[in-house]
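Worked problem 6 (solution included).
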Amino acid sequence: MKTKLINWWESLKTSFWFIPTLMVLAAILISICIINLDRYSITDSVRFLGFLNSVSPEGARSILSTLAASMMTVTGVTFSITIVVLNLASSQFGPRLLRNFIRDKSIQFVLGTFVASFIYCLLVLRSIQVVGEDIFVPTLSVTFAVGLALLDAGVLIYFIHHIATSIQADEVVAGVSEELECNVRRIFTTELNDQPDEITDKISQLQEENKAHYHNHTIIADRKGYLQAIDLDGLLQTAKENDYLIRLQIRPGQFVVTDGTLAVVSSEKKFDINLTKGITKAFIVGSNPTSEQDLEYSIHQLVEVAIRALSPGINDPFTAIACVDQLGAALCHLAKKKFPSSSYFDDQGQLRLKIKPFTYSGMLNASFDQIRQYGRPSISVTIRLLETLLLIAEHTLLAEQRKAIHRQANMILRASQETVFEPNDREDVQKRYELLLCTLNRFNDAAGLYEFPDGLSASPMQAIGLFDQQRNRKNVHVHEENIVVQ
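Solution. The predicted structure is:
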């Protein structure tokens, strides 16, 4: 239930109407309150303030009508500007980034302010009464409407400034990166130790092997779409109550087809078919992926901006480099975080749930694979990729992380040897690779763990000199066998 509520709240935040609707409801409530204050002659006691001067019914109607018409006009202009910006963002940065613009609270607040002011003026205009000698003019309400008009003028100026800055490439990249950092802090709450939790992994493997001979039942999807979230608490409770082992075959962010496998349930007794529908409901499937449980969602957004910037039609390597920098910052942060375990146990220590977890190597590949492939002709992007890998390597704690970095660096180096023909450019790329290799070997006790690809060679002394010169570190011992052709 909690996961479904979070998913529902996430869909509300990405809707364009939620905040404006709340502001319209607030305008209705405020209008009722202020009109009642006027009816009970509260304004007579505060007239000494000097700004609550009497106004005729015709004058009040004229003021409110003018304000309502102008607010509606400004609202139409604001919507038009917003649609133009959305169209520009879709063509420049990709249609999937429209979600970030739609969920922009500043734009929603501006639209809500104008619409709420329009509704307020209409309701106050309706309350003016002229029936014989019974005349009611809500002086305080009209004065408040004038104050709203002044506020709306300031909001319009803010909107123009905000919309002009929000479509800048650096602002778009920074916004997606901030969302990525927030997701990292939300999902990865535990700092990583120097050693992985091997004991828990062995216990999980033994219990899973012991239940391999149990009855297996496949849970299939009843609709197609992207898996947005999984109710892990609900699945864990179901597995505990029925003595099941549930092994998930898909993780959030992946696409599932109708009748595709969601999970496999292992049970000592025959599976209760009545529980199939309840287990299926734990998988929330939608028409588009979300960042609720899919950490790679924001990574894919940055990658999309980068590869669009590298396309021949745009040819903007500076934006691609900015995306690489932000991805590198997120991966440096992830290198010190403990990834959620793939095994979930009950209170008695029995394995109940196996998931397909995210891994650091998978996150690294998702970040750099497509940028490396599309950025092969760009020397500046290739060099920045290696520099970013060097920065990430300095924050790693596990050999698995360094192995993934070494694999990615080798692919970048091989691609540069095939596409870069200028000798000086090739030398720049290779120098950065040598520096990265020295950094990786510095973290390992075994000599020669990370070596050059076949067909490439470098001087060990040259690598050491670069390392000392660029990093200002001493006492770095690099064995000659670390960087030779095997």
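Discussion: The beta strands are 129-131, 134-136, 215-220, 225-230, 244-248, 255-256, 261-267, 283-286, 343-345, 351-354.
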